[in-house]
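Quick one:
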Amino acid sequence: MHPNGSALLLTPTRRRTVGVVLAAVLVLIGGLLLAYPERAGAAADPLISRGKAAASSSDEGSGFGPQNAFDGDPATRWASVEGKDPQWLSVDLGAGADVTRVTLSWEDAYAKAYRIEISADGTSWTRLAEETAGNGGTDDWASLSGKGRYLRVYGTARGTAYGYSLHEVEVYGTAGSEPPQTGAFTVVAAGDIAAQCTASDSDCAHPKTAALAQKINPKFYLTMGDSQYDDARIADFRAYYDKTWGVFKDRTRPVPGNHETYDPAGALAGYKAYFGAIAYPQGKSYYSYDEGNWHFIALDSNSFDKSAQIDWLKADLAKNSKACIAAYWHHPLYSSGGHGNDPVSRPVWKILYGAKADLVLNGHDHHYERFAPQNPDGKAVADGITEIVGGMGGAEPYPIEEVQPNSQKRISGEYGVLKMDFTDSGYSWNYVGTDGKNKDTSPKYTCH
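Output:
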């Protein structure tokens, strides 16, 4: 346990001198606090890490993700894989900050040796403090002085045979100034929507998700493919989708899924006939548009193997002037559901990651899932892309099968929509069930 956050080893004489001086100072401070009790704690710097985006080198399982160490709940924790050194846990403070104090609340699996480091870009790190003889419990590193946006705990030697585990990491200091949030707006998103059923069937889900989506009344709607089952014929669009989600078709920004390619009249024939220019605003099944400080890219993952779309994406990103980037399509690169990971999306991820994209939305697997920011190779990194699988718009749910690394939350069997909240410099969301209740709330993320 590190009682005072200082790595300085004092000589016995120095310790006695410090003790005398400290006693005198404490008497003086005590008198001042008695005289001016309202000043107690007035100089303490605020907590600036609660609820911020987090990443880690690994986690022990889906219930031990890095975000648990910044949620303020002592019952949750981050835990790394067992038996491997080094391991790290990091937090994105959202903007450059002056860090003055860090407290670590270790679980039984503690670090014997570790460093606390700070970085402006999440790549180059500066050491703030170092422990070489840790014994668990609570380490309170006070009187630190560091400037940066990212802070990490870098464990180099385990204190037990297990891994590293922290109930909570609290970072104190002065947060950097951020631009005013003048461009806030809300978007509703879902994929895998209209089964061949109507509101007369009590088990039919897409009328319920449509009613929820309409009640939220967002700026616009995103659909992440498979809007109509099973073969997405124009007759089926008119008989089912149009009666529910079609009510706000003119405010919808769709992309096609694999079921839109099954139409006997031709791949995407019914999809194009139903949505028309809404789905082809630039004459292709993929397009982009801006809202506030965000650039949105709608892609057709059925043709990721075609150079035309890839070349278009690179050109589109090259001319983008917005600070924040979101992309959406049907097939997820990472998923813990029945379809699992789909490598067809990896080349697109690499392009988006190189352009510092922030967010990717997908469908295909019929469940809800969110991932920690990660790179195209599935490594959790502070500058990674956040992926959401949102395929619970109305099609029959799929079970969770193989939980993927960096998966932070999964819900199967509860239909709902994503309520996405965007600002000039960041985003967050809630997964809302058809009963109107929040089933999951994301961290607040800042754009890269």
